[in-house]
Amino acid sequence: MSRFRTTTVALVAAAAGFALSAAPAQAAPGDVTTTCASTATPAGYVDVNWGYSNTCGGQNFAPNIKQIKQLTGLPIGTVVQACGSTYYPAGWVQTSSYYSGSCVSFPNQGFNNNAWTIKRVS
Fold first, then answer.
1. Structure-derived torsion over alpha carbons of residues 70, 73, 78, 84, reported in degrees to the nearest 10
2. Which first-to-last residue range defines the signal peptide (predicted)?
3. Does the reported pTM lie above 0.85?
4. Beta carbons of 43 and 59 less than 8 angstroms apart
5. What is the tally of structural domains in the chain?
């Protein structure tokens, strides 16, 4: 029974890891999705939060998951708080930058500006 349980737990963990690392499919404008940090942020998205999860591996509690927000389709004038770990898409401009504890993407990053407010202008 223990072997069956171990196999089941391994399969569930693998499925959860795949679900976190898979690119979001058909996300609506403004949707936020969680993914493993090792997955590149898709075009039209920005990182909005970083954290740690056993699901994405790692043993040193370094940030290994991120939340990404779909910007494509948001109306002109929309304002979004985003991490500086990805570039914002064309049609968006930075209106301010600041430090955010939610945007620490690697250990010992310091307290330099790591986030920005962006606004859709076209």
1. 30
2. 1-27
3. no
4. no
5. 1
